[in-house]
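Assess this today:

___
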Amino acid sequence: MRNLAALLAGLVFGAGLVVSQMINPKKVLDFLDVAGGWDPSLGLVIASALAVTAIGYRLAWRASRPAFDERFQVPTSRTLDKRLMIGAVMFGIGWGLVGLCPGPALAGLSLAHPSVYVFVAAMTVGMALFEIAQIVRLAMKGSRTYK
C-alpha cells in the first residue's frame, strides 16, 4: 500500500508539473527574467503549492502517525551549514541558467526534447561524481561508514 501511495503521489506531482508548465524551460526562464519579458504566471503555481503544503502539514501533524509508515520522516537538523548553502546556491544558479530542476526535468523526459535529456544526463553524472567524492573524502579520513 505504501508503494501505491508513493506512486499516486508521484503521478499527481508529475501531472502538476506538466499542467503548470514547470517542465518547459522557456516558461521558467521567462518567470525568472524580471528585467525582461517577465511572465508572472508561475507565481500562481508557487502560491498554490505553498497553500497546499501549509494545509497538508497542518493536517499531517494532527495525525498520530502517517497513513503508510511507522513514523514521520522529518529532518532533525535545523543547521544552515556551508554544504547546505553551497548546494542551494548551485541549485539556484543551475535552475536560473537552464530553467530546469530535477523533478521537472524527470517529468520532462516524456517530451523527448534533446535539451532535457542532456540536462538529466549531466545531473546524473554530477550526482555520481558527488557520491564518488564523498566516498573518497571518507576514505581519506579513515572512516568506514558512508551516509
About this structure: The mean pLDDT is 88. The radius of gyration is 18 Å. The CA atoms of residues 138 and 145 lie 8 Å apart. The helical segments are 2-19, 25-32, 41-62, 82-98, 102-108, 114-141.
